[in-house]
From TrEMBL, chain A:
InterPro entries: Beta-prop_EMC1_1st, EMC1, EMC1_C, Quinoprotein_ADH-like_sf, WD40/YVTN_repeat-like_dom_sf
Signal peptide segment: 1-25
TM regions (residue ranges): none
Topology within the bilayer: Single-pass type I membrane protein
Keyword Disulfide bond among UniProt keywords: yes
Subunit-structure text: Component of the ER membrane protein complex (EMC).
Family: Belongs to the EMC1 family.
Protein name: ER membrane protein complex subunit 1
Length: 959, 258
């Protein structure tokens, strides 16, 4: 008996080892072999070149995604990057840069941070009093900058640059009536706060830098002025200059405390010979190159959409230096202009164009128009001026250009905000297609068949020889010269369909086609008429499998406010817009569904349901409409109205109208619908049941129409809040199961697949994240093993549920997907730390027993443990952490063992996972040497022993 | 490529084709509403210091962040390794220092409504258990993260030290070496050996060497079973094996519990 017990123990131990080994992990030599990461920062809001050291290669960027980073100006790569909290609390309001320090105002003036630009570490961080930030500026004195002034709605404060300590803080007088908008310092020991009472007067207060004492406080009449920031600027030796379009004239006021003017000096624009374009609000732009010194006395005046003037203020006189009449667009900060695609540098003092400073750049025809430009000027060795330009375009692309127009790098920052994506199979090459065509065509006689066979065989031979020749040719060249660059022309499917085209849709409306193997962008297409609050849905209507028909993707773009929808139909391999004209959709669209029906050109049918519950089909040929009529009785769809808490099911009628067949109302006062998850349509389930310990089969409840509805309580009190989950049949509206997690709140992350639902929530009672798994089983017998019908399933499924503790918050969750569904499933969990955890579904199994029994051991069930563990070996992205993971896309490959994974958020990461290890191909570490040496050794051993035996026999015979 | 388009039987004959579509109705994400109740009231600061022994702070601080309850509050590390997370309302939080290279233990920090702070070990199972930690936090790295599995490398020593190989090689050596040590040319010796072999071998007609060997093998196995010398060692070995397996077993249980 003891021996038997021991045997069992050993068996258990062995099983544990097997289980442990079954969990996939990355080996060190696989790093970068089939995975890649691209890091982004987002749309740039502020940017400064690091110029305090001549050799510095940094450009600092602060973005709308609350990221502060330093880029390498030579390569465009990141030196370092700091990702703050998303949302308004991490919003970057201002970026000031002085020497080694970069000062950021974060969260609507809540925090003031100083960063060390070289190391990328924090110098200091302080909390400011209230969250009503207006403006910040650096304050210099006697040529050195030591302070930073922060202006808020009702206070002004001065902080030391070295440690952030507050030097003084003062309340602004009359802050209820006066709107203080900007702060200015000219480097002479005073800080000016400029406020305005609209259409009445300007308030100017000068503070002493030393103790915050008010040196001068004055109100100046300005009944024509409504906004200082929009129409005023400070130039020269502290002269406030404003422009008024009504009069039209310029107004000047000297801020110097020794001057006691009570009026602004008016200079009519006509006296300068200038005219404002009708309906145009003129804009003034000044430049202060060093905050310890005064601003330049030259400034820009924009009088029309394409009319810029360079003016100079000189001893109370304004002189026109240059008139940039034909300019298309002019950018602030530096004195240059952009005309079509030229950049020229002009001297600010004289207005003359500098020689050899023309920079020509070619805009990407598939990109947007230029929006902002940042110039890095430098002195060349021969004392002439050189410069580099960083151009930001509407599609969030950064392009860094060097004279005379060489693009050094581009960053597609639109990819920091991927909304949805698909992976599309690559097309076959010409020869592969030829072969496929042979099998597809109808037979026309024996001889021609034989001939065709031979010719295709010949083509293959030719291709093979040319491949060999190329290999041989490449082998002779040095390694570095061999370029295996992927271009659209040489794209073709590989043996195992591991290389695919990633079609990515970004929030800015730019579409990308990325090669999944290398991560290089193969095509890009900017849709410039996309509304800013658009929702997107990408569908593959025709795959590459239907040669010679081109593959086709359809992007649904819906304006969230109006509900109006447009379709963009394109070829996912080349990114070109398709010739197929999409239907015009005058009505708001409620729901879209891609049917498995195909038209005669093998394009799947897309149904669109509008707010009148009328259905339109795309494509809508006769063939399609006929098929739809035949199928209509079996086409069902559902609508969710989360604002009313209503779920309703509809059926299609043959005349393409609809009929409501069920409705479930979730009371809005108590709970609201957070998400509705169906199963993925391309998911395959290989085994219909699970074999139990006693060799009986427990059949899975595989309802393809099942929906998982997640609700959250409206009451957010931690004792009364709850999370609900409802499993509902999408065809009949039958509620299969309902579960409530008390003392829990969202955000709920959910994965719904096969016969299980896994969801994660926050337990308010125990203050921890918990996972719960629900599995549905039909029982020991299948009701109808050939067909699943929602309308004919009398028995309710058995429901098993179990919950676990998860020791981290999660960002997103997805399950692996393989071609045939034989491979075991893993959950891919994106963590806030940037790791992507591959957790075997085996750990989330409601049949995990608390007490180990003979049968559970037989079934390979892991004994129940309340806490799931996070092992860093299970991170599929090892140290390549991914910031703010928003989605994980899984896609099957041609190999059953392999699942392609793309995680996107601020960064993009692509890799492959093998949930059950690589059972269908030889592993990377397969030891060819060992196998061949053993074989050889055996061969020689037999030879030698044979020889020896012969000798021995001969000897014996002689004896 | 037609087989790719083939849909499994189960799905193909589904009577009711329901395409799980995309819900257009916009849904609000949960946390916004839940957080709004906490905006009023005092805000506090969580302070501490992270240390990686033997590594300069400049080398790792630029990739590090301090996460409080996931990404609810975010702090950054100063160039000397210290950190402060501002604007945190009272409550109980899990504070983690996150870097892709070094591993830090998470700490739970409790803040009372008056701003009193304490730090304790994170225990998700017994959430009320208090094992005090120093506050301001002192978080010391326990080394670099281990992301990679070891490849099963193949070495001669592994191969030779394998018990199976040992079991095979030792008898082989005996078989090969024994005839060399014992002089087979000596007719007396030979006779003796033949005799002993005949004793083991029931049918002496087969003179083939290889067959003799196998016989010897099976014979020696039988003899060892009966042999008295092995009797003494066996139970000890058995005990040891049992102990080993139990150790392994408990180790595994530990790993599940983690």
């Amino acid at each position: 008996r003891a021996a038997a017990a021991m045997a069992k123990l050993i068996l258990l131990w062995l099983k544990c080892i097997i289980l442990y080994n079954a969990v996939d992990a990355v080996f060190e030599d696989q790093v970068g072999k089939f995975d890649w990461r691209q890091q982004y920062v987002g749309k740039v809001r502020f940017s400064h070149f690091d110029t305090h050291v001549q050799s510095s290669k940094k450009v600092l960027v602060a973005t709308e995604n609350n990221v502060f980073a330093a880029l390498n100006t030579r390569t465009g790569e990141l030196f370092w990057r700091h990702v703050d909290k998303s949302g308004p609390e991490g919003n970057i309001d201002a970026l000031l840069h002085h020497g080694q320090d970069a000062i950021l105002v974060v969260g609507n003036g809540r925090l003031l941070r100083s960063w060390d630009v070289n190391v990328g570490g924090l110098n200091w961080e302080i909390v400011l009093d209230s969250g009503s930030f207006q403006k910040a500026c650096l304050v210099g004195q006697q040529g050195t900058v030591k302070h930073v002034a922060v202006l808020e709605k009702n206070i002004i404060s001065l902080h030391y640059l070295s440690n952030g300590h507050q030097k003084w803080i003062e309340n602004l007088p009359d802050s209820e009536t006066v709107d203080y908008q900007t702060v200015y310092s000219g480097g002479n020991g005073e800080v000016y706060a400029l406020g305005i009472v609209p259409h009445s007067h300007i308030v100017i207060i000068a503070y002493s830098t030393d103790d915050g004492e008010i040196i001068k406080q004055i109100s100046v009449e300005a009944p024509w002025l409504s906004n200082i920031v929009a129409s005023c600027a400070v130039i020269g030796q502290g002269v406030l200059i404003c422009v008024d379009s009504a009069t039209p004239s310029l107004y000047m006021y000297n801020l110097n405390p020794n001057m006691d003017d009570l009026q602004m000096t008016q200079i009519p624009l006509q006296s300068l010979g200038l005219e404002v374009a009708p309906d145009f609000q003129p804009v003034l732009v000044s430049h202060q190159p060093n905050s310890a010194h005064q601003p330049l006395s030259e400034f820009f005046l924009q009088l029309g959409p394409d009319n810029f003037l360079l003016l100079q203020f000189n001893n109370g006189q304004i002189v026109t230096l240059r008139d940039f009449k034909p300019v298309r667009k002019l950018f602030s900060i530096f004195l240059f202009h952009i005309q079509k695609h030229y950049i020229n540098l002009f001297s600010a003092e004289t207005g003359r164009r500098l020689l050899d400073t023309t920079l020509i750049f070619v805009m990407d025809p598939n990109g947007g128009k230029p929006e902002k430009i940042y110039i890095q000027p430098f002195l060349k060795k021969d004392d002439s001026v050189g410069y580099r330009a960083m151009v930001q375009t509407e599609d969030h692309t950064l392009t860094f250009i060097q004279q005379p127009g060489r693009v050094m790098w581009t960053r597609e920052e639109a990819l920091s905000d991927v909304v949805t994506m698909e992976m599309v199979d690559l097309p076959l090459t010409g020869t592969q297609a030829e072969l496929e065509g042979e099998f597809g065509k109808k037979a026309d006689g024996l001889m021609s068949m034989v001939f065709k066979r031979l010719s295709s065989q010949l083509i293959l031979l030719q291709a093979w020889i040319s491949h060999l020749w190329k290999l041989f040719y490449d082998a002779r060249k040095p390694r570095s010269q061999v370029k295996n660059e992927v271009t659209i022309e040489n794209l073709s499917r590989d043996e195992f369909n591991l290389q695919k085209m990633m079609v990515m849709v970004t929030a800015s409306g730019k579409l990308f086609g990325i090669d999944s193997k290398t991560g290089s962008i193969l095509w890009r297409h900017y849709l410039n008429d996309v509304p800013s609050n658009a929702a997107f849905k990408l569908m593959v209507q025709r795959t590459t499998a239907h040669f010679p028909h081109p593959p086709q993707c359809t992007l649904l773009i819906k304006d969230k406010d109006t509900g109006l929808t447009t379709l963009h139909v394109f070829n996912p391999i080349f990114g070109k817009k398709s010739h197929v004209t999409p239907p015009a959709l005058p009505q708001p669209i409620l729901q879209s569904l891609l049917l498995p029906l195909m038209d005669q050109d093998y394009a799947k049918v897309l149904l669109l349901v509008d707010d009148q519950y009328k259905v339109s089909a795309f494509p809508s040929t006769k063939n399609v409409l006929q098929q739809l009529q035949e199928m209509a009785s079996s086409i069902f769809f559902y609508l969710v109205d989360s604002s009313q808490g209503r779920l309703s099911g509809y059926r299609l009628r043959t005349d393409l109208s609809t009929e409501q067949i069920w409705e479930v109302v979730i009371p809005m006062e108590i709970q609201r619908i957070v998400s509705v998850k169906g199963k993925r349509p391309n998911e395959h389930v290989h085994s219909q049941g699970r074999v139990m310990g006693d060799r009986s089969v427990l059949y899975k409840y595989l309802n393809p129409n099942l929906l998982a509805v997640v609700t959250e309580s409206t009451d957010t009190h931690q004792e009364r809040s709850f999370v609900g989950i409802i499993l509902i049949d999408g065809v009949t509206g039958r509620i299969i199961h309902e579960a409530v997690q008390r003392k829990a709140r969202g955000p709920v992350h959910i994965v719904h697949s096969e016969n299980w639902v896994v969801y994660e929530y926050w337990s308010t009672k125990s203050r921890r994240n918990e996972f719960s798994v629900i599995e549905l089983y039909e029982g020991m017998e299948l009701y109808n093993s050939t067909v699943f019908s929602s309308l004919d399933r009398p028995h309710a499924p058995q429901v098993l549920q179990q919950s676990y503790i998860f020791p981290s918050a999660i960002s997103t969750m997805e399950a692996t997907l393989t071609e045939k569904g034989i491979t075991s499933r893993h959950l891919l969990i994106g963590l806030p730390s940037g790791g992507i955890l591959s957790l075997p579904k085996m750990f989330l199994d409601p049949r995990r027993p608390e007490i180990v029994s003979e049968q559970s051991r037989e079934e390979n069930l892991i004994p129940y443990a309340p806490e799931l563990m996070i092992r860093t070996e299970w991170f599929i992205n090892y140290n390549q952490s991914i910031s703010r993971v928003r989605g994980i896309h899984t896609s099957p490959s041609g190999l059953e063992s392999t699942c392609l994974v793309v995680a996107y958020g601020l960064d993009i990461y692509q890799t492959r996972v093998y949930p059950s290890k690589q059972f269908d191909v030889l592993k990377d570490d397969y030891d060819y040497m060992l196998i061949s040496s053993v074989l050889l050794a055996l061969f020689f051993a037999t030879m030698i022993s044979k020889r020896l035996a012969e000798v021995k026999l001969l000897n014996r015979a002689w004896r | 490529m037609w087989h790719r388009e083939r849909i499994p039987l189960l799905l193909a004959f589904v009577q009711s084709v329901l395409v799980v579509g995309w819900c257009f109705t916009e849904m609000e994400a949960g946390p916004g509403a839940a957080m709004s109740t906490q905006t009023n009231g005092d805000r506090f600061k969580i302070e501490g210091r992270a240390i990686v022994p033997g590594v300069k702070t400049q080398d790792w601080v630029s990739t590090a962040r301090v996460l409080v309850d996931g990404e609810e509050h975010v702090g950054f590390l100063r160039t000397d390794g210290s950190f402060a997370v501002n604007d945190v309302p009272s409550g109980s939080y899990v504070v983690e220092v996150v870097t892709p290279t070094y591993r830090f233990e998470a700490v739970r920090v409790d803040i009372t409504s008056k701003g009193k702070m304490r730090a304790r070990l994170v225990n998700y199972i017994k959430t009320s258990e208090v094992i005090r930690q120093p506050y301001p936090l002192q978080i010391r790295s326990s080394g670099p993260h281990s992301y990679f599995m070891k490849r099963e490398t193949w070495g001669w020593t592994d191969f030779l030290m394998n018990p199976m190989v040992m079991m095979m090689v030792l008898p082989l050596l005996i078989i090969v070496l024994l005839p060399k040590v014992v002089n087979t040319n000596d007719p007396e010796m030979r006779k003796e050996m033949e005799q002993s072999m005949n004793m083991l071998n029931p049918n002496p007609e087969l003179p083939d060497v290889s067959e003799l060997m196998t016989k010897l093998f099976s014979g020696s196995k039988g003899s060892s079973k009966a042999g008295s010398s092995s009797k003494g060692t066996r139970p000890a070995a058995k005990r040891r094996a049992k102990k080993l397996s139990m150790q392994n077993n408990s180790a595994d249980l530990d790993s599940w519990d983690q």
